[in-house]
Amino acid sequence: MKSSTRIGSLARYLVMACALSAVAGCDWFDSDSDGNKKNEVTDVTLNVGTAAVVPGGSVTFVATVVGGNKVDPTVTWSVDPGTCGAQAGSITSSGTYTAGNPLDDCQVTVRATSVGDPSQSVSATVSVDAPVAVTLNFSNATLLPGASQAFVATVTGEGSASSAVTWSLDAGSCGSAAGSLAADGLYTAGTPADDCQVTVTATSVADPSKSTSASVLVDVALSVKLDVTDLSLPAEGTKTFVATVTGAGSASTAVTWSLDAGTCGADAGTLAADGTYTAGKPATECEVTVTAKSAADPSVSASATITVLPPTATGWQTPVAIDVPALNSRPQEPQVATDGSGNSIAVWQQDSVVYAAHWDGTDWSLPVAIDAGTNGNASRPQVGFDGSGNAIAVWTQWDGFRDRVYANRWDGTAWGTAAMISSAGSVGNADLPQLAVDPSGAAIAMWEQYIFGYVVVANYFDGTQWGATPVVIGSGNEPQLAFNGSGKAMAAWYVDRPYPLSTRIYTSVFEADTWSSPAPIDDGTGDAFLPDVAMDATGAIVVWKQWDGSSYRTIASRWAAGGWSAPETVSATTGDMRVNIPRVAMDGSGNAVVIWIDLRSSPYHMYANTWNGSAWAGVGAIDGGTTSASDSDIPGVSMDAAGRAMAIWIQRDADGWDRVYTNRWDGNQWLGPQVIDAAGAAVGAESFNSALAMDASGKATAVWVHSTVQDRVYAAHYVP
Q1: How far is residue 612's CA from residue 590's CA, in Å, rounded to a whole number?
Q2: Region of 434 on the Ramachandran plot (φ > 0 left; ψ -120 to 50 alpha; else beta)
Q3: What are phi and psi of 270, to 5 degrees?
Q4: 500 burial class (0-12, 13-18, 19+ CB within 10 angstroms)?
Q5: CA 595 to CA 665: how far, in whole Å?
Q6: In the prediction, which pLDDT does 163 show?
Q7: CA-based nearest residue to 285, from 312, 323, 319, 316
Q8: Contact (Cβ atoms closer than 8 angstroms) between residue 692 and residue 704
Q9: Which of 141, 238, 359, 706 is the most buried (most CB within 10 A)?
């Protein structure tokens, strides 16, 4: 008992001694059963030896400290930036590593170090795999038209095995003016009319799914342009200027107009807010300046200089020759049309070629051939204007097999190419073409053609092209045609029936691209020939020559609200009469003038009657009554918008030579016949083939053939 007590006391002593000092031989107290010290760290391990993440990605490491049973398990974490440098990322105290955002692939080293024994640590390698990315030196740019910008593409990620890119250009709002992009990334801007944008794109060759783009603004400087910058106008002439604003985004295309009186002073005229200039009436030639200023930037403007000519004397002006001068040349069949802006176009046949000349309000152009030009034998030209200064001419021409109908169009500047508008496969010749042109630009050509009997054929021009196949309207001869300005047209012709049946006058209405069924409008009591037709906005009048059992008289019928009035005689109703070639014209308000030749005795006379919208005024001679009106020439009549009219015909003078006569109806009375072919005064000179056209303001142009040493086409203008 005493021995064990002593042993226990000794043990307590030794423990206390070892606790108070490092006494050799005391280590056995801190060791485990394997002989390891209980707090000794022998190793540090990680759950992952290598890892791969994307930029910004994370991975969590778990560290295990190996050693005695009293080892400290904590570690400190650190990141060696390796090849990632400043984009090495970071690691939390719990071992979660978050990658940085390197531009290219790189590696870092994550290390766990024992807190109990800092000499013990373990590391893992982390690969940061950056995807392919493409960047440009500029993400947007602004260039002037024609300027250049060099784009540089940088390819990063996936080790950048290939830094090559392909370049592409999206034209965007620049369209065909987008410019060009070279293979090295050099973009050169185009020359658009206004601000626009393109997109330049660089695409990785290594990974075509990766690309980047830059937006380029092509910045066009603000500018104003006028459709005309230099022109001449007659006194009181008009011109509507058109201003085009481009550039700087054209946030506002509006302009303000101003007029500098220049040398015209008080006679400068006026300028409306829409750019319509109306010339004054200066005593001598002078100049004004019209200016359009951008509303967005008044410092940007454009100007036009206008030479204003002094007023022309009123009445008929001196005739001038307008044809191709050549000895032994035979110009014939002149026709003329006028528009509402002082322009005229004359056409004629000369040596089997159809020529045209243009009057611009000041001068006649040189004549030009407008026919098909292949086989010659062109004849019977007709011409008409639309409301926009365009004109159409039609004629017949031999194609080597038959006479066909051809057409050509004047676009306000030049003639186009002649084209056949009748059927090439028709078995008979086409003849006597007529033409009517609508203000909208539509037109109808009509002619007679022998197709196992005479028929009336038409073709429609829609403003762009003629119909592919002409339309046969019905049987008949010598059609006449008129448009009313609202899309309707009226055609009239005669149908020659076997004896003892009388010849009849037929009509057809064109509306909505369709011709109505032809129907007679005469009373059928006697042969009816030579119709003529005129239209206003809502109605029409057809006149013709008809036998009443004892005389040929001028008959008229009026069309309104889809129906025809009963035919009525507008020439003398009693006594012998030999009416020939009646002609009719209408204004826009339902007034009409009819003229005709009376061949009942020598001298022949020109007669007229007028319709005031409700009644015929009465018959009267308009030729002066002293010499004979010619029965070999077709008289003509035309009206303006105010109900005034001008008649033209050929009449023999006291010396026995045929001259060109006109007479003007002022809305109330005929003012008296007047000779207008001053060149015809020479003995042995005479005129024939007269024609006339009048515009809405009352200005008129007359053409005719004058014969002396050689035949020439002459023209004269009437100024009201």
Answers
A1: 7
A2: beta
A3: -130, 155
A4: exposed
A5: 12
A6: 84
A7: 312
A8: no
A9: 706
Q: What are phi and psi of 342, to 5 degrees?
A: 90, 10
Give pLDDT tens digits for 68-102.
888 899 999 999 999 999 999 999 999 999 999 88
**Burial class of residue 298 (count of CB atoms within 10 Å of its CB; 0-12, 13-18, 19+):** exposed
Considering Cα of 518, then 524, then 529, then 533, what sign does the dihedral take? negative
Q: What is the DSSP letter of 131?
A: P
Computed over every residue of the chain, the mean pLDDT equals 89
Q: Distances from the Cα of 693 to the Cαs of 3, 65, 340, 345, 611, in angstroms?
A: 159, 116, 11, 10, 20
Q: Say how far apart CA 64 and CA 415 lie, in whole Å.
A: 98
Buried b (16+ CB within 10 A) or exposed e, 225-236: ebeeeebbbbbe
State the DSSP code for 415.
B
Radius of gyration over alpha carbons of the chain, in Å?
Answer: 50
For residues 335 and 322, is the Cβ–Cβ distance under 8 A?
no
Q: In terms of Cα–Cα distance, which of 336, 438, 343 is closest to 387?
A: 438
How far is residue 208's CA from residue 129's CA, in Å, rounded to a whole number? 18
221 SS3 class: coil
Q: Computed from CA positions of residues 346, 349, 353, 354, in that sequence, does the dihedral angle turn out positive or negative?
A: positive
Measured between alpha carbons, how far is 521 from 506 in angstroms, rounded to an integer? 6
Low-confidence ranges of the chain (pLDDT < 70): 1-36, 158-161, 249-251, 327, 575-576, 626-627, 629-632, 678-684
Question: 619, 594 in Cβ contact below 8 A?
Answer: no
619, 607 contact by CB (below 8 A):
yes
Residue 162 β-bridge partners: none
Burial-class residue 526 by CB neighbours within 10 Å (0-12, 13-18, 19+).
middle
* Bridge partners for 569 per DSSP: 555
- Decide if 629 contacts 604 (C-beta within 8 A): yes
User: Which tens digits make up the pLDDT trace of 53-72?
Assistant: 989 999 999 999 998 888 89
DSSP, collapsed to helix, strand or coil, labels residue 15 as: helix
Report if pTM > 0.70. no
CA distance 585 to 318: 26
- d(CA 112, CA 122) in angstroms, rounded, equals 5
> Distance between CA atoms of 134 and 102, rounded to whole angstroms?
14
| pLDDT score recorded for residue 486 | 86
| Structural domains of the chain, ranges and CATH numbers in brackets | 26-128 (2.60.40.60), 133-218 (2.60.40.60), 230-308 (2.60.40), 570-720 (2.120.10.10)
Residues 376, 395: Cα–Cα separation, whole Å: 12
Q: Residue 585 CB: number of other CB atoms within 10 A?
A: 24
Only one residue has tokens 């365009």, namely 390
